């Protein structure tokens, strides 16, 4: 038994199977089966094989809607989180209270969320650049 990579017609590694190499098996039309040991080093599911070399899979786009409160707060760096929690500003407290009660439906394009993150930047709890990054769903560096 050996591991085999299933590559689609574009050369993208879609899946890996364990196969004896002898029993009847045919991948779906347009896909090819390759013994993983015979492939160039550096491949993984999602990578593309072209001209004998792998290109890494693109990073998934960050989510922009339907975030839970914890996912939303994870977009802020730890120091930003601490500053938000420690803030005595009533508008900050109201924004975090409303976000925490959003029942897993925080959308980064919601005008209230955009305004709230903008407010955090306006009072210096996050920078304008970080506010913009947060609203794209980018995790802190």
Describe what you observe in this structure.
The protein is α+β, with helices and mostly antiparallel strands. It folds into 2 domains: 2-55, no CATH class; 69-134, no CATH class. The chain is built from 5 helices and 5 strands, in the order βββββααααα. A hairpin with a 5-residue loop joins strand 1 and strand 2 (13-19). The protein is elongated. The model has no long low-confidence stretch (mean pLDDT 91).
Number of strands: 5
The oligomeric state is single chain
Structural class: alpha+beta
Segments where pLDDT lies below 50 for 5+ residues?
none
Largest beta sheet: what is the strand line-up?
2-1-3
Number of helices: 5
Helix content: 25-40%
Question: Separation of termini?
Answer: 42 Å
Outline of this structure?
By secondary structure, this protein is an alpha+beta fold. It has 5 helices and 5 strands, in the order E-E-E-E-E-H-H-H-H-H.
Fold blueprint:
Blueprint: E1 2-7, E2 13-19, E3 32-35, E4 48-50, E5 53-55, H1 69-73, H2 78-86, H3 90-100, H4 111-122, H5 128-134
Antiparallel strand pairs: 1-2, 1-3, 4-5
Summary keywords:
two-stranded antiparallel sheet, three-stranded antiparallel beta sheet, single chain, elongated, about 15% strand, about 140 residues, alpha+beta
């Amino acid at each position: 038994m050996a591991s085999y990579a299933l590559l689609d017609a574009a050369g993208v590694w879609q899946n890996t199977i364990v196969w004896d190499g002898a029993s009847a098996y045919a991948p779906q039309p347009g896909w090819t089966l390759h013994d993983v040991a015979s492939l160039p080093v550096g491949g993984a599911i999602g990578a593309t094989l072209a001209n004998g070399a792998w290109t890494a899979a693109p990073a998934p786009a960050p989510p922009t809607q339907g975030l839970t409160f914890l996912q939303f707060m994870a977009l802020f760096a730890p120091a930003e989180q601490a500053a938000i929690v420690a803030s005595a500003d009533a508008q900050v407290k109201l924004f975090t209270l409303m976000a925490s009660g959003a029942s897993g439906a925080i959308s980064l394009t919601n005008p209230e969320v955009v305004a709230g993150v903008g407010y955090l930047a306006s009072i210096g709890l996050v920078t304008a650049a970080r506010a913009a990054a947060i609203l794209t769903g980018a995790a802190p560096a």
